[in-house]
Task: inverse folding
């Protein structure tokens, strides 16, 4: 029976969390760890310390949705003791390569996280279109109900590819129709940008600590201590962001983004994403001109003062929307799928979140 690689991405974490050792590390040498993104790599370094050597496949300031691996990076996957991936199809352009070349099942660091649907809000709780936006009062900006698909690795199906990789499982039309009708798929595509909420990254820490312990049980105490210390830093970071957001009037807590990457930030810290230039979790999605027209209207109705774009993505469309809005709309660049370069303002996850939060709050008047 062939190993189902996609299902393995989820099942491996469950095995680790229940005490199963997947592979034994070589003594007196650091674990060779490959992480798909620089953000995951930074978290892994904090958990592993000197006991791990971490390589990030996607470099700083790159777009995770479109990055292509070099031959040398493919070799690093084959030699890794641990491979860490985000999950929920974030690594759309390179996941198959990771699965084909990893000698051990990759770890999905986001297992256990509550997953948002793209758009992040319940369609039954939309804004009242008759509300008087000119008054700009807080009642007209009550936040929509957050639309969670389920828990990654449990009730949320985000990584499942309906075309079997090995070609040994065919699906009938009846089976496909039944699957399309399942509750998880009623919500649409999952939002993979889990790290935009600090509590979600605390879940990452716990999963990575369990993975390192399973591979290197002799150093379990070190990994636990490192994880505990890092979680203290993350809790302090979360408190700082909450305090920062508290300086911003609730009526100003509306976001327009270049693509769907701030859903978890909005849900965690009390914002609402009222529109996106590219209405997708991927920067590779096509844009409908009618969506652009509608977005310009939203910007006018909501008195939006800024569009939040990404350092790693082209902002030309966002600039076009801003120019069509008929009012002064700033383009504020944030870091999204990757950290900054080492000499930049967001070279660690803690700095990354602090930078983005500061940019958002400042741009919106906090």
Result:
């Amino acid at each position: 029976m062939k190993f189902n690689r996609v299902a393995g991405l989820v099942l491996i974490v469950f095995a680790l969390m229940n005490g199963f050792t997947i592979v034994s590390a070589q003594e007196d040498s650091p674990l060779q760890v490959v992480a798909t993104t620089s953000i995951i790599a930074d978290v892994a370094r904090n958990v592993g310390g000197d006991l791990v050597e971490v390589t990030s496949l996607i470099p700083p300031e790159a777009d995770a949705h479109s990055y292509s691996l070099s031959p040398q990076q493919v070799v690093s996957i084959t030699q890794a003791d641990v491979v860490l991936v985000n999950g929920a199809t974030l690594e759309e352009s390179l996941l198959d390569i990771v699965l084909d070349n990893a000698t051990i099942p990759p770890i999905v660091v986001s297992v256990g996280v509550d997953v948002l649907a793209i758009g992040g809000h319940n369609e039954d709780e939309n804004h009242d279109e008759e509300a008087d936006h000119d008054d700009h009062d807080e009642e007209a900006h009550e936040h929509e109900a957050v639309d969670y698909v389920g828990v990654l690795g449990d009730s949320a199906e985000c990584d499942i590819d309906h075309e079997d990789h090995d070609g040994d499982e065919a699906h009938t039309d009846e089976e496909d129709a039944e699957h399309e009708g399942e509750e998880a798929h009623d919500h649409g595509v999952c939002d993979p940008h889990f790290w935009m909420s600090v509590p979600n990254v605390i879940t990452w820490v716990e999963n990575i600590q369990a993975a390192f312990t399973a591979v290197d049980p002799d150093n379990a105490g070190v990994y636990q201590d490192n994880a505990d210390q890092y979680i203290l830093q993350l809790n302090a970071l979360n408190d700082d962001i909450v305090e920062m957001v508290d300086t911003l009037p609730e009526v100003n807590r509306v976001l327009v983004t270049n693509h769907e990457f701030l859903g978890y930030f909005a849900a965690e810290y009390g914002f609402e994403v009222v529109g996106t230039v590219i209405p997708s979790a991927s920067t590779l999605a096509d844009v409908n001109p009618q969506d652009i027209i509608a977005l310009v209207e939203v910007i006018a109705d909501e008195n939006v003062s800024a569009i939040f774009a990404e350092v790693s993505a082209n902002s030309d469309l966002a600039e076009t929307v801003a120019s069509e809005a008929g009012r002064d709309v700033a383009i504020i660049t944030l870091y999204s799928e990757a950290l900054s370069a080492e000499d930049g303002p967001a070279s660690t996850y803690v700095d990354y979140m602090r930078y983005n939060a500061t940019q958002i709050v400042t741009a919106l008047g906090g």
Q: What stands out?
A: The first helix runs from residue 5 to 17. The radius of gyration is 21 Å.
